[in-house]
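Ticket #4471: structure export looks truncated?
Reporter: QA, pipeline team
Priority: medium

Steps to reproduce: submit the single chain below to the structure queue and open the exported record.
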Amino acid sequence: MRAVIETGSKQYIVEEGTILDIEKLETEEKTVLFDRVLAVFNANDIKLGQPYIEGARVEATILNQIRADKIKVFKFKRKTGYQKTQGHRQYLTTIKVEKISAA
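Actual output as written to the record:
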């Protein structure tokens, strides 16, 4: 069974056992419940929400709070001598999907 969830204004396709990095979740708990499920599908059945499926849930376990690799932001304007370099590291939460339940 697969599901499409929304978190951090991004959408992810997940199935049981999936490990993925999402935007940082501000919680101290080890388990998290996603109730913003957009679609649930398996081999025979597809359920689509408008916009979300009522009663559908995805349970996940928080494995780690990390920071992504640094990216460099470089701004440049030719002929004026303007250039600016900046770095950014995004905070991420690593989760493992434990259970998908459709309504």
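Status: closed, not a bug. The export was complete when the record was re-opened. Leaving a note from the reviewer for reference: The first strand starts at residue 2 and ends at 7.
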